[in-house]
Amino acid sequence: MNGLDPFYPVVDSVDWVALLVKEGAKLIQLRIKERNDETVLPDVTAALALCRAAGAELVVNDYWRAAIEAGASFLHLGQGDLDTADVPAIRRAGLRLGISTHDHAELERAIRFDPDYVALGPIYPTTLKAMPFAPQGLARIGEWKRLIGGRPLVAIGGISLERAQGCLDAGADVVAMVSDVTRHPDPPARIRDWLAATRHPAA
Hints:
10 helices, 8 strands
């Protein structure tokens, strides 16, 4: 086992983190955009406290200085973030690191940082942001899993509950989603459905 829960929601507020841990999520990414480390630090600190109280893992997206200052244990960086982040400082602080990839060149670059997981996306078309990369498809998941060795593989991009099992069957260890939870008319019920679908009965 890779030690990461297969259900990996990506949300943009402490309120969403609070709902997720209440419903039993164990791996949550806090992705807040267009802020700076100073203003985002209280959010990271609050989300981290919620996750620790619930026995969940918080992954901080992008804000590596805030993650270090708050005492987080996990960070996610995109390829652009790698251009400016101080990865040696991140590692000295003891943070585990996940890295986004979209093509072979980015994967080769990511592996040089010895990440604790590799994310591949978008698997399916996504409406959340304009992507310069075409949808990867399920076959690419299997290819990536072979290339990254024993590292966990996170599939992301356009993934709904109905598509999740296909990603896992193709070789993903973890499936990440945004709008399938946050834009659902009944988010708590959707979270419970995700948990039921991605966890074995003994979990």
